[in-house]
Every structure is written in C-alpha cells, then in structure tokens.
Design brief:
Shape: globular
Distance between the termini: 29 Å
Mean pLDDT: 76
Order of helices and strands: HHHEEEHEEEEH
Strand order of the largest sheet: 1-2-3-7-6-5-4
Largest sheet: 7 strands, antiparallel
Number of strands: 7
Strand content: 15-25%
Helix content: 25-40%
Number of helices: 5
Radius of gyration: 15 Å
C-alpha cells in the first residue's frame, strides 16, 4: 500500500514537473520517498541570514537557508524522529498501534507513517513526507486526488490544503520549503486538515536538524 502510494506520486510528479514548470524543473535529489517527524517544543526555525542563498522559505519570514535538495535523501529513521509516537497519538486521538515506519525511494523522497491500526484504513494514520518535487508540483498532485484545494499558511510557511471528503478520507497539506518551482516540498496527511496542521506545527521547526 505504501509503495503503491509512493510510486503513484512519483509518476504524477514526473508528469506535472515536466508539463507545468519547464523552467523550474531541477532534477529532484535521488533519495527515498516518504517522511514523518518529532517534538512540539522544538526551537523555531530561524530566518536566513542576509548572505544565505536565495533558496529559503517564504511566508512570515520563517525558512530554511541554503540548498535543501538533501532533505529528500533523509533516512526513514531521521524522518520518524521528527514526530514522536506520543505526539502523533495526541493529535489523532488514538494509540499508535505500530512502530512509526516509512519508506525511501530514490528520486522521490522519504516518509514516516503513524498507524492506529494496520493496513492504513481510512482515517487511521498520519504521514509526514519530504518529496523530491517542487511545492507547485506537489500542490497539483493533491488537487488531482479530489476535493477543493485552498491556500493557507502554517507556522509562517505557505501551504496548500485539501480537506478530507466522503470519498477521500485523508486530508493533505503541502508546505513550501523553498522557491515554489524548486524541490523539495513537504507533505502532511491526516484524517483532517486541523490534524495535518498540528503535525506540521511540530515538524517544521525541526527540519533544520536534517540539514
């Protein structure tokens, strides 16, 4: 199930990146395919210094400076360290039945998934995923899944959200980490947008630990 989701993401991403953002398609860092995160009390991400490269995040002045392409190469162990099991439990409101685990696929990214029961049934899991595609492409991908995409912010970061629907039981939140046409981006999925935003608020300040 996880592999299928990631392979579909990769196929759609290749199409979107190739078709919709010709000038901005820097090849994604060859790495894994799915993410997840640690603790709510982590330090806020500092604004980039004046001399930092222009690859920092926009939105409220928060951002990650420098070349972020290596984030998509993060190991699953580091991804799963961004959000604790207890934090995931507090957000989803149920015990996390399985050890947090994820996948890495070359060129796609890395993720970590928190399941309240095995099988990833609708409404039973949280996922954190750093993708080797741009924010613009990733926002397009979640729009293809159904539901209405809306722009929002979380922790000062620009984001696109698609709420869960009768047919789409998981909400998706894509957050911009750098220029909208430049990889990587980060995806949060949970039963509701409110839950996805709660996860993002914990994880985003900790991304600096992966650099």
């Amino acid at each position: 199930m996880r592999l299928v989701r990631l392979v579909v993401l990769g196929s759609l991403a290749i199409c979107l990146v190739a078709c919709s953002s010709p000038a901005a398609t820097q090849p994604p860092a060859s790495a894994g395919g799915v993410p997840s995160a640690p603790v709510a009390s982590g330090p806020a991400v500092s604004a980039p210094a004046a001399s930092a490269p222009a690859a920092s995040v926009a939105g409220g002045g928060n951002g990650l400076a420098g070349d972020l392409s290596s984030l998509a190469l993060t190991s699953t162990a580091k991804m799963c360290a961004l959000l604790s099991k207890d934090e995931a439990k507090a957000i989803i409101g149920k015990d996390i039945a399985l050890p947090p685990d994820g996948m890495s696929l070359s060129g796609l990214g890395t993720n970590c998934i928190y399941e309240t029961e095995s099988g990833m049934a609708d409404g039973t899991w949280i996922k954190v995923e750093i993708d080797g595609v741009s924010y613009k492409a990733n926002a397009g991908l979640i729009g293809l899944a159904g539901g209405t995409a809306t722009t929002t912010t979380v922790g000062g970061f620009d984001a696109t959200a698609v709420e869960s629907t009768d047919t789409l039981k998981e909400a998706s939140l894509v957050v911009r980490l750098t220029d909208p046409d430049t990889a990587p981006s980060i995806l949060f999925q949970a039963p509701t947008i409110a839950m996805a935003k709660a996860v993002a608020a914990i994880v985003l300040p900790r991304l600096a630990t992966l650099q």
